[in-house]
Design goal:
globular, alpha/beta, Rossmann fold
């Protein structure tokens, strides 16, 4: 497969690209900083230098042309302000989805956030509420598009070693999950188009990733 990943230098994206490249797939990470190109090439991935906050649909569609799948794994990050949470977590996600439609890339996976559907009622700090609302808006936009989309909402992300075992469902409850397992789960979702049209939560569990996805 040729898979284009938005947010290509993010922690999950780098792990995903490495997994894809290791099994012979063509992973293309979109990065805005040219200095990050070498990091992607070092793990066997390609890099496309493009700033999703400043690009248009035509430019992004050119990168997606010929791809078998698209993965949105970009994020403004916890230290960003409200403006960037909107331009990255919402607007860039919507742009990437629109470009997928234009390029004819049907399979589209978006990394969302657990709690996005409770942004208005959650007892969280204001900056996190803004983030959740941006994620929810991006989800709503994607769900309305004519794409074979899957939205993955992982639990609390950790840098622990992956266990290869998860719990995945429409609602799992809160819990941690290593970024390595999220990357492996994204590979499994790419391989299983029957998960299209689903919004799924995932945390660490006791079921092997491939088995858990097959059981959905």
């Amino acid at each position: 497969m040729r898979v284009v990943i938005a947010g290509g230098h993010g922690q999950i994206a780098l792990k995903l690209e490495k997994l894809l490249a290791a099994r012979g797939d063509q992973a293309v990470g979109i990065v805005r900083n040219p200095d990050h190109v070498a990091d992607l090439e070092a793990i066997g991935a390609e890099a496309a230098v493009l700033d999703l906050e400043k690009s248009d649909v035509d430019a992004v569609a050119k990168v997606l042309d010929g791809a078998d799948a698209a993965v949105f794994a970009a994020g403004a990050g916890p230290g960003s302000g409200a403006a960037r949470k909107d331009t990255v977590d919402r607007a860039a996600a919507e742009l990437f989805a629109a470009a997928s439609e234009q390029a004819g890339v049907r399979r589209h996976i978006q990394v969302g956030s657990m709690g996005a559907d409770k942004a208005e009622t959650a007892e969280v700090p204001d900056d996190f509420r803004i983030y959740l609302k941006a994620k929810k808006a991006a989800e709503d936009d994607l769900r309305a598009r004519d794409l074979e989309w899957t939205i993955l909402r992982p639990g609390q992300l950790t840098d622990d070693d992956g266990t290869g075992e998860i719990r995945i469902a429409e609602a799992t409850g809160r819990g941690p999950i290593p970024r390595q397992d999220v990357a492996a789960l994204l590979v499994a979702l790419l391989d299983d188009p029957s998960t299209a049209g689903r919004v799924l939560e995932a945390i660490s569990g006791d079921t092997p990733i491939s088995q858990a996805v097959s059981a959905l």
